[in-house]
Amino acid sequence: xxxxxxxxxxxxxxxxxxxxxxxxxxxxxxxxxxxxxxxxxxxxxxxxxxxxxxxxxxxxxxxxxxxxxxxxxxxxxxxxxxxxxxxxxxxxxxxxxxxxxxxxxxxxxxxxxxxxxxxxxxxxxxxxxxxxxxxxxxxxx
Length: 141
Hints:
three-stranded antiparallel β-sheet; two-stranded antiparallel sheet; globular
C-alpha cells in the first residue's frame, strides 16, 4: 500500500491510498481518480511531507503550519459527518460487507466501520474501492 498526497485542477489537496505506484497510474489513466471535494478528474501527485518514524514503530504522515489547516479540518469533519449520517455502520464487519457489495452479493449502499491493517491491505489488493474515514479530535474549549 502507498499513500499519495494529491492535488486537483481546482487547487484541492487530499490523500489517497493505492495498492502500489502502478495502481495510481492505471486508475488515473482509467479516469477513476477524482477529487473528493469537487469531483475533478484532473488530479496529479502533490509534494509530500516526509513520513516520520521511530525505530520499531509504524510511520505516520504529518503536516504542520499550513495556513488552511483549520479550513481543511472542518472539511474533513463535514465529510465524516456526511458519511456517518448517510451510510450504514457495519462495525468490524467492514471488509466482509465491502466485499459483498463489490461482488454484488448484496445491494450497493454506503457503509462505514472498522478494519484491521491486514483487511485493508487485502481489500486494496482485491481492487475494492474504499477510503479512510478521518478521525479528528474534538476542538478544545
